[in-house]
Amino acid sequence: MKKLLSIFFLVSIFSTISSQAQFRLGPAVGLNVATLSGTDITVDPKIGWHAGLFFDVSLTKHLSIMPSVLYSTKGYKYDYISTTSAEPIDTSTGTATITATVDVNATLGYLDVPALLTWYSGEHKGFMIQVGPQLSYLITDNATVNTSATISQNGQSPQPTTPTTSNKLEFHKTDLSLMGGIGYKLPALLMIYARASTGFGKVQDGDFIKDENAGHNFVISVGAALVFGPK
Predict the structure, then answer these.
(1) Is 68 helix (H, G, I), strand (E, B) or coil?
(2) CB atoms within 10 A of CB 188
(3) N or C: which end of the chain has fewer CB within 10 A?
(4) How far apart are CA 229 and CA 6, in angstroms?
(5) Which residues, other chains included, contact 143 with Cβ-Cβ below 8 Å and sequence gap of 6+?
């Protein structure tokens, strides 16, 4: 009997919460500015975009959970120069100095699933503050590596070698990020937002780059969404 009463009590609570919860949803689209953090390499940001669907599940009059499913393009660009001096087999030619320049350009497409705790200044409208985790899965990767070098014998003028191009870069498939942001929701239809996310996992994998310079995804996003559901 006690078990039946407990089950009835839990079902009643769940039914009450479900009946009072309000659901909103809509399409979201915006721009990304992506780069790498946690690396000693000087990295240039890349402009990308995101688009998908968001959901808003009310917890109280001023608090909700906002999960989303977004396709998001991220990436980075960097170049570095290394110089190596070596003694050739024929010592009469003097020391050979090799200067290599490597340019890396990566565009990465992720399926992002953020779940943001959202506080509204009004009753599900007005100024809002968001924070929460984001799980990302790598769907597409388009990366190229251009390498060129010059060789100088015994301090003479450097002679260029033939540049080479490769796309042999490897990336980790999943990433967990912390996201936070602010925004504003109008009383009806429109919501705008600005967010920043920083990843915990290394972006690049393999032997191309040292692990301490593999970097983490860091993305600043701005966007807008159409909101359908209760006001």
Answers:
(1) strand
(2) 9
(3) N
(4) 34
(5) 104, 105, 106, 107, 108, 167, 169, 171
Residue count of the chain: 231
Q: Is 91 helix (H, G, I), strand (E, B) or coil?
A: helix
Two tokens, residue 115: 């779940």
Instruction: Report which DSSP code applies to 154.
Output: T
Tokens read off for 38 = 């946690």
State pLDDT tens for residues 132-167.
999 999 999 988 887 776 666 665 565 555 556 666
| Helix, strand, coil percentages, rounded to 5, for the chain | 10, 65, 25
- In sign, the C-alpha dihedral spanning 85, 91, 94, 100 is negative
Rounded CA gap, 33 and 36, in Å? Answer: 11
pTM assigned to the model = 0.76
